[in-house]
Amino acid sequence: MEISTDLVTSLVVLATALLGLYKVAGADVHESMGERIREAIGIIIIPAAMLALLWLFTSVLPNMMSSATKYEPTPINHGADDAEQMLAITKRFWKQDMRQDALKLTIEHALATGRYDIAVEAAADLNPTGQADDVRMRAIKALAGEQQQALWQE
To answer: Is 114 left (phi over 0), alpha (psi -120 to 50) or beta?
Structure first.
């Protein structure tokens, strides 16, 4: 059985009203009306705060979250190479585990195609951040290897 928010709200309001009536009815007859009203307000404050929190978490925050995560098209430069396009797409992932996997694929592709700038830029978003140093070292070794091969061929 699913309990709706309206049902919970109605039950809290009913319990508050009954408790308030009981408290006011049980008040000393010799007390002033102001004292009775103060006692009733003291009873109503806690359920009112609960209702306010319920309203906040069921309507205000979800609306704020949905407006914050509105869809924006991924800007991809069609003239860019694959590594640049892959990096642009990885920045749009919401799930962190998928984003990390996409970053690793982007880094591998960028290193394989000689786009070390893209590999280093993608490595900056890796978690844990220590992995970025590994990628930078791989890029340096690849660059050093290319330069050494060029020197040996001359």
So the answer is: left
> What are the pLDDT digits (tens) for 56-99?
777 777 777 665 555 566 677 777 888 899 998 898 888 888 99
**Ramachandran area for residue 121 (φ above 0: left; ψ -120 to 50: alpha; else beta):** alpha
CA distance 143 to 111: 10
Both tokens of residue 140?
């340096």
Which token pair is 55? 């309203």
**Would you say the C-alpha torsion 22, 28, 30, 36 has a positive or negative sign?**
negative
Tokens of 39: 């006692």
Give the integer Cα–Cα distance in Å for 113 and 87: 14
Among candidates 144, 139, 79, 77, which has minimal Cα distance to 108? 139
By CB atoms closer than 10 A (0-12, 13-18, 19+), residue 2 is: exposed
- Count of residues making up the chain: 154
Six token digits for residue 38 = 């103060």
- At 74, the amino acid letter reads T
